[in-house]
């Protein structure tokens, strides 16, 4: 064989490791309709459960008549709160330390609330059964405005009406949940009162919904003979579901198996525990049959989860020449009927206090009031690390408003206040330690890329032309520089229901030199099977194509806290690298033995261990793996496996500079996005193509939120946007072309320097789109207009400004 051995470069390329735009291995099945989603799970004898839901937002439930429903052919059972009460399952604990009705117990508190669970032979019989259940309601006054709720005599939560203490401290009113504070209020007030310039604004981030294409659902299957409960479900955190299911049901944890199969998008919607899961499990235990529950679109938009709904009253102060001196923020957070926000336990407002953003602000204060209203519970991190998108929107709007107040260019104001590269690690006034960043470099690159000066000149000319009546279109330049905070843990700060937020990876290298790795996270479309194999390829020298990645089965995967808050790369990705290093350490001993040298005399090189100074003497990882199983090596156990549970020392702080250039027709409110430039810095990049896909997807969700998507209620609590006729989902038609770019500032504490990126485009995108709308009208006196900026609202801005 006269073929030349591969060069070192060819060996590196063959691994498809870090930095390679490897094609997604999961796409073969996704693009051919061969995915296996929860609704694809069909077990022998499976039956179907579905909910009777409340038509009222607030009503007393006087009686539930199930007799007629039970006569419907195919209907097997109808569960109500009375049936769940003996099991203590009529209420369930929420992730936020509150409790939530599983089925209506005496009253209903939001439209679409689960009232009874009809179990039938199939979905259609269940629907007929639902129609036959008769519920007697007595309507009660409805509160949909959190400010009114805090003043009203109407008691929403009668179950805790007299409790003056909640999970997060004192409650000052029967509809108040908590006041959570961070920072130094006295010093902040002092800084603002003595400042040369102060800007004040109410910034509202409206209620919206993650709305994954696949709705939530599960199949619960109780095997009474063996005492085993199996639950397939759309779970972003399967192990947590197993632990919670065990604690609630009393079934020992080893007898519960939770499986998240393919998931059609999560976006935070699939983190929480919903009544559908509990009712399916109970129904399976009662009937001894597998029970499926799958939401339809209206169920999903009405009942499981919501996001945002933050009223943020801000004050920001500065010197006359634009140096920021203080930031004050008072939030009124509408949590709906139950506090079911999905946040780490100690943070009832998530990581909202990252709201000093990318700026070096000496003093700051945040106070968040959680309030009950007659809306659906949820408060999930829809593509943002626990309220980070609210924080980014708030600070990026406040910067714009301050720029107006100062009569200063908003790009210059930002640059003047950025945390400088030499200040990292940087501790913010609200207590976060930013691990790394280089904001000025990213910002300069972004401004240059779009010819910022040229755009401002064009904008000024456009304003003049508009005033002369030569055009009816305005030009907006939407600027954003955001800082994300992703990767919860560390365990000492972050837990969910007491479970510390580490993550894990377990690797088995097979004798022939291929491998399987299992993680505690679960992909919902992010491409983990592709990218985590790349981390390993670079760490252990086995080609990514020879590594299977498996997630989502609690019987096989190591315990982990799941995928949300862009934590998979920062936490499970780190565990993967660390487990890989354990493999490598053992491989080194084996290689040294095989090469008959001391352990320290061999070194790792791409896919092999070589004798130092004698590169022709080496053992490949494939040879080493084979020896690990088939050769007796003194002092070394057979096999080549490792597991790592990784508790990150800190979170990672990705950042980005986004610029949106938008044309707005003042007569119709129609916008056209001429250019969208997105520079992301997520540290070391594992797969640039996957990152670009993440950015495209996140920006499109940001576009949706900023420009039209909304969960709206009328004054009696009717849900006005529970179908795709009313809830805006962008199609290819509305989606603009994006230009992506990057800088690379590795995280100093992550084993491979990677930071998360999945949520960044949503966090940075929303203020970029919204700032573009605002900026178009800046010359005509607009300061603040609430999202979503749909055509009617944009037209209204122009109209109100007399344009
Ligand atoms: N990466 C790379 N590099 C770096 C980073 C990252 O490459 N540096 C990649 C990885 O590997 C993956 C991705 O990218 O694959 C992502 O990652 P991250 O950032 O780490 O994240 P994760 O954890 O994985 O994920 C999560 C996210 C979230 S959170 C969300 S919303 C969303 C995102 O993710 N979701 C979703 N994205 C997505 N995509 C899809 N397709 N789907 C979905 O669902 Mo939450 O909290 O849940 O709300």
TrEMBL record:
Under SUPFAM superfamilies, the record lists: CO dehydrogenase molybdoprotein N-domain-like, Molybdenum cofactor-binding domain
Record bears the keyword Signal:
no
Q: Cross-referenced InterPro entries, in alphabetical order? A: Ald_Oxase/Xan_DH_a/b (IPR000674), Ald_Oxase/Xan_DH_a/b_sf (IPR036856), Ald_Oxase/xanthine_DH-like (IPR016208), AldOxase/xan_DH_MoCoBD1 (IPR008274), AldOxase/xan_DH_MoCoBD2 (IPR046867), AldOxase/xan_DH_Mopterin-bd_sf (IPR037165), CO_Mo_DH_lsu (IPR012780)
The signal peptide, as residue positions, is none
Which superkingdom does the taxonomy of this entry point to?
Answer: Bacteria
Q: What is its EC number?
A: 1.2.5.3
> Which NCBIfam families does its entry note?
CO_dehy_Mo_lg
Q: What is the name listed in the Swiss-Prot or TrEMBL entry for this protein?
A: Aerobic carbon-monoxide dehydrogenase large subunit
Q: Which organism is it from?
A: Tropicimonas aquimaris
